[in-house]
Specification:
9 strands; single chain; 4 helices; 20% helix; 197 residues; three-stranded antiparallel β-sheet; Aminopeptidase; alpha+beta
Length: 197
């Protein structure tokens, strides 16, 4: 199932991010800013998991504490050392959020995410490494491609990231341009898809 990102998803998104982009993952402040900038188009792919027992039935407070950095997996889509639209203000930075932990309530496992602008620019897309090649990235990208009133969908891909290039090519994207030194030491390829009318 694909739904909009909520702040209670943040820890799971950070884990996916750290595993997918170990060289330069987005941090929680960046994701909070992206949520503020793109609340309608920050989507997560979830898999319901069985209920987990809790010690008490009262709501608990979860703060956004530290995460371990994991894995050496390469991400899908916008590569490490990615660029991000700038915005000086952020909403909810350092926030504490209430999370419902009533026993027996079904919890969801976040398997991947995509963030894109209303004009079709894919800012970031990633899938939990152990759940790749199961159609999750395809489902997320198809959701972007089916967004009403989008005239094109495009992303930057590191020139050396053959996996991401193959993925986009399989989805009908074409390489349309190159941006020299976009990643500092490497060019970016612009991959683009235009819907047929």
């Amino acid at each position: 199932m694909i739904r909009r990102f909520s702040l209670s998803d943040l820890e799971s998104i950070l884990q996916i991010e750290n595993q997918s982009f170990p060289k330069s993952p987005y941090d929680r402040t960046t994701f909070l800013n992206l949520h503020y900038l793109y609340p309608e188009t920050f989507l997560v792919h979830v898999n319901p998991s069985p209920p987990q027992p809790e010690a008490s039935g009262s709501p608990s407070t979860r703060d956004f504490g530290g995460l371990s950095r994991a894995a050496q997996a390469e991400g899908l889509g916008v590569d490490s050392e990615r660029r991000l639209p700038s915005r000086s203000e952020g909403r909810g930075l350092g926030a504490v959020e209430r999370v419902n932990t009533i026993p027996g309530q079904k919890e969801e496992q976040i398997l991947g995410y995509v963030i894109f602008s209303q004009d079709g620019h894919i800012i970031s897309i990633a899938v939990l490494p152990q759940r790749r090649r199961k159609g999750i990235g395809t489902q997320l990208l198809r959701r972007v491609m089916k967004t009403p009133r989008i005239e094109k969908v495009w992303a930057e891909v590191r020139r050396s990231n053959q996996g991401a290039q193959a993925f986009y090519s399989k989805m009908g994207f074409q390489i349309t341009d190159r941006v020299p030194n976009y990643y500092g030491n490497e060019d970016a390829l612009i991959v683009q898809w235009i819907p047929t009318t």
